[in-house]
Structure formats: C-alpha cells, structure tokens
Amino acid sequence: xxxxxxxxxxxxxxxxxxxxxxxxxxxxxxxxxxxxxxxxxxxxxxxxxxxxxxxxxxxxxxxxxxxxxxxxxxxxxxxxxxxxxxxxxxxxxxxxxxxxxxxxxxxxxxxxxxxxxxxxxxxxxxxxxxxxxxxxxxxxxxxxxxxxxxxxxxxxxxxxxxxxxxxxxxxxxxxxxxxxxxxxxxxxxxxxxxxxxxxxxxxxxxxxxxxxxxxxxxxxxxxxxxxxxxxxxxxxxxxxxxxxxxxxxxxxxxxxxxxx
Length: 260
Known about the structure:
single chain; alpha/beta; Spore Coat Polysaccharide Biosynthesis Protein SpsA, Chain A
C-alpha cells in the first residue's frame, strides 16, 4: 500500500547520466512525490536500473544541453507541481515536510526557493561563498522553464515566489578527480558561451581573476573555516577561473577570420 504522502500532486524531474552512485538515494528521498521522472541519457553504468528499482519512471532523452534537456522533461508535467532535482541532490525530511505543507495550501505561491547544503570532500561547506545557496526548484506546472544558457542555467518562474524551510543536500563531487573531470566540461561550456555572446578575451581577467577568486572565497568569505576541504575548494575554484579564461583565449583566437 502506498504512503499517504505519495498522493501529493508533485512530479519530481531529474536528468541523469552515469549517476549510479547517487541516483537511488536521490529517488528514495522523493517518496512523497506522486511521480518521479528520470530523464536518462546514454549512461555507461546502472543509472537507469538503479533509478527504476528505487521507484522512478525512466524516460530516454537526447542530450541537448542542460537547460533544453531539463525543459523537455518539464513538458511532461501538465498539472500539479514540478520539483526540479539533480541526480546528486537529496531532499531532507524537513524539506519534504515543507513541500507537503505548501502544496496543500490553497494560498501557496507560484514558485519556491530551496536552501541547498553543499558538501565537498566529505564535509559540509559553510563558507567560501557556498552558503547560503538558494535555488529555485519548486513551481506550479506551466509556470516555469530554464533559461537556455550553456552552463549555469537558471529556472525562471512566472508569479509570486517565496522561500521554503528545510535543506536540499548537494553532493556534487565524489572526489578531486571527479571535480577535475567536471571542471574540464564546465569550463569548455563557459568559454564557448562567452565566444557565442561576442565577449572579447581579456588578458587582465586571465591575469587577475584566479587570484581574486581565491582571495574572495578563502579570506573574504572565510573559506579557511572549512578546513582542508575549504582550502582545496578555493584553490580549485581559482584553477577553474584560470582554465575558463585560457579556453576563452583559445576559442576566441580560433574564431578569428582565417583560423580553423
């Protein structure tokens, strides 16, 4: 017999690829949702099987960038509420209770911000500019879509917005190797987006942004209070800035007439 809370008119949508390590726990934490739809794309592991075994519906999706792929899943939801979750995020019991309360409230807003609790190298990051981290994730069906940026896409919701109690736990990087692999992908997307928007490469930003990123996160945002994980995060974020600007230079140079 299904749980009473599972009758809530909430559809959770998740895009997932090679997410076997986190997808099952992610789906199980969404048991209060009437539907859990996982858009799976060409995984080389047991992502689809693990999600299905945990209680999700699997939809094969063609990868068309983060925003467009998420929007394609959102279009599956015609009524009720939509909860957008990433495969490396877990809804806490407190957040689930808060969602249940607003969905049952006839005077609820059209969309809700959720506070994300970020983890890195086995530790909750409370500083470095990573906390608080409010993300717009819950909205009435038909009211929200992601803007179509190549990276760091943002959900846009029509109507009144409010904040929810409870936390969304985020386990984005399994280890440093995972961080480096993702950094390589995200910096390429960020550099490509800059070129496509016509932004010129800046030698000054290449020279100063990495150092300023570390100073801002480690000193001004008190990243030193997060111990070694905080130090590593600030250093890798500085490296992320350097690689992003270097790739921008590379793409900007190749985009000039006469360059391949």
